[in-house]
Specification:
This protein has about 270 residues and is of the alpha/beta class. It is about 35% helix and about 5% strand. The protein folds into two domains: about 25-45 and about 70-175, 3-Layer(aba) Sandwich (Collagenase (Catalytic Domain)), CATH 3.40.390; about 180-270, no CATH class. It has helices at about 10-15, 25-40, 50-55, 60-70, 90-100, 160-175, 195-200, 210-215, 220-225, 260-270, and strands at about 80-85, 110, 120-125, 130-135, 150. The structure holds zinc ion.
Length: about 270
C-alpha cells in the first residue's frame, strides 16, 4: 500500500472538480412530480403493489414516498421540451442553446427555446447559486414556475467552449432523465471512502456525510436506471482524482457525448 488515507490530495484538486450536485425535490414537490410524470408518460407508473403488500402496513404516509422512488422520470417519446431563460446575457443564452441542441441530433426529443415561463418545462438561471445543476427528467414538473430547474453558476460570456460543452451537455442530460454515471450500479468505481469523505467534506463543497453519500457514493438501483453498463467515457461521469479511488486510477475528463451516451439516449427516446 503506497498511500495512506492521510496522504494530502494533489493541489490540482483545489481548482478542479466543479461538481454538479443532485437536486432533490421536497415532499410536496415530489408528490406533484410523481403525478405529473405518470400523466406525461404512462410507462413511468410504478409497478403495482402486490395485494399482500397492500394489506400489511402500507400506510398512506409512506405510500407516496415509496411510489416516488419507483416512479420513472422519462418524458414522452418525441416530446418538445419548452426552455425558458430566467436571466443571463444574450451570449450565455446562445452558447447554452447551441450545446443543448447536441442531444436533439441523437434522441427523438426537441427543445423549443422560445417557450415562455408559463409553458416551459425547463427554466434556466445563471445566478441561482454558484453551482451547476439540473433536476432529473420529469422531476422538473414538480418545481414551482417561479424557480429554475437548471442552473449554470460558473458559465460566463468568456468561459471557454470546452467548458460550455462539458457542463451544458451534462446538465441537459439530467433534464432528459440521465443520472450520474459514477452512481451507475452496473459496475463502476470502488471508492477510497475515507479520502472521498475528507475531500468533499472540505471546501468548496463542504458536504455532510449524507450529501457525500447521496452525490458520490450512493448507487441507483438497477430498476431505477434503465441503465446500460458503466461507461467510463460518459458525459455524465465526472472526473475524479485517482486518490479518491481504490487502485488510484482517475476517471477520465469527458467533455463530449460518448458513443455509450448516444446509444443510451436513443434507447430512451427512440
Ligand atoms: Zn450532474
Amino acid at each position: 500500500m503506497a498511500k495512506s488515507d492521510k496522504t494530502p490530495l494533489p493541489t490540482k484538486h483545489d481548482k478542479t472538480i466543479h461538481m454538479c450536485c443532485d437536486r432533490v425535490l421536497s415532499g410536496a414537490e415530489k408528490v406533484r412530480a410523481m403525478h405529473a410524470a405518470i400523466q406525461e408518460n404512462s410507462a413511468n407508473a410504478p409497478p403495482k403493489l402486490a395485494p399482500r403488500a397492500r394489506l400489511f402496513g402500507a400506510s398512506s404516509m409512506e405510500a407516496p414516498a415509496k411510489m416516488a422512488l419507483q416512479t420513472g422520470k422519462k418524458w414522452a417519446d418525441g416530446k418538445t421540451l419548452g426552455v425558458y431563460f430566467m436571466d443571463g446575457s444574450a451570449t450565455q443564452k446562445s452558447r447554452v442553446t447551441a450545446q443543448a441542441m447536441k442531444w436533439t441530433t441523437v434522441a427523438n426529443i426537441k427543445f423549443d427555446f422560445s417557450a415562455t415561463r408559463a409553458n416551459a418545462h425547463i427554466r434556466i438561471s445563471f445566478v441561482a447559486d454558484a453551482g451547476s445543476w439540473s433536476y432529473i427528467g420529469t422531476d422538473c414538473l414538480g418545481v414551482a414556475k417561479s424557480k429554475p430547474t437548471m442552473n449554470f453558476g460558473w458559465l460566463r460570456d468568456n468561459t471557454d467552449e470546452t467548458e460550455y460543452e462539458r457542463v451544458v451537455v451534462h446538465e441537459f442530460g439530467h433534464a432528459l432523465g440521465a443520472i450520474h454515471e459514477h452512481q451507475n450500479s452496473k459496475g463502476g468505481i470502488q471508492w477510497n471512502l475515507p479520502a472521498v469523505y475528507a475531500y468533499f467534506g472540505g471546501p468548496p463543497n463542504n458536504w455532510t456525510k449524507e450529501q457525500v453519500d447521496n452525490n458520490v457514493i450512493g448507487k441507483y438501483s438497477v430498476d431505477q436506471l434503465n441503465a446500460s453498463k458503466y461507461d467510463p467515457d460518459s458525459i455524465m461521469l465526472y472526473q475524479f482524482d485517482g486518490a479518491l479511488i481504490k487502485g488510484g486510477k482517475p476517471t477520465k475528463f469527458n467533455t463530449k457525448l460518448s458513443r455509450g451516451d448516444k446509444r443510451f439516449i436513443r434507447k430512451q427516446y427512440p
